[in-house]
Design a protein that fits this description.
about 140 residues; eight-stranded antiparallel barrel; 2 helices; about 10% helix
Length: about 140
């Protein structure tokens, strides 16, 4: 996990979002904040020494600006995949959701690529949101 935190360090671009090859068109709001269309192209930053982070939406047709979060990788039994918790905060890192947040699975992490998935329930069935990132810089 310590290596994962180090690898996450830096700036990432959210390249695309898909729905695990599910057919159809979906109206998805991520992190209670913005549509998937607005999130694509956003720049994310993970700072491992204090577990702070942010993402910035730059699509002119969306609500622009930085959003802040605290993140952690909880200890887990499985070494093949693990989760990351993102808790939205304000600029001073105070919780904006009464210390609640979002659990994502880190499906893939390398020096240059990152894939998060989040499985939610739609009509009582699991529905997977896949977010693919590429590293911009440390």
């Amino acid at each position: 996990m310590k290596q994962s935190r180090k690898t996450l360090k830096g700036y990432w671009n959210l390249d695309n979002i898909n729905y695990n090859n599910a057919p159809g068109v979906y109206d998805v709001t991520l992190f209670g904040d913005a549509s998937s269309e607005c999130m694509v192209g956003s720049t994310w930053r993970f700072i491992p020494n204090n577990n702070f982070g942010n993402y910035e939406i730059t699509d002119g047709s969306c609500a622009l600006g930085k959003r802040y979060f605290v993140w952690s990788i909880p200890a887990q039994e499985s070494a093949t995949s693990y989760d990351i918790l993102l808790k939205p905060t304000d600029e001073k890192m105070n919780s904006t959701m009464n210390n609640a947040g979002f659990r994502l699975n880190i499906n893939y992490l390398s020096e240059n690529e990152l894939t998060f998935t989040q499985t939610v329930q739609v009509d009582g069935k699991p529905f997977t949101i896949v977010m693919n990132f590429s590293k911009i810089s440390e």
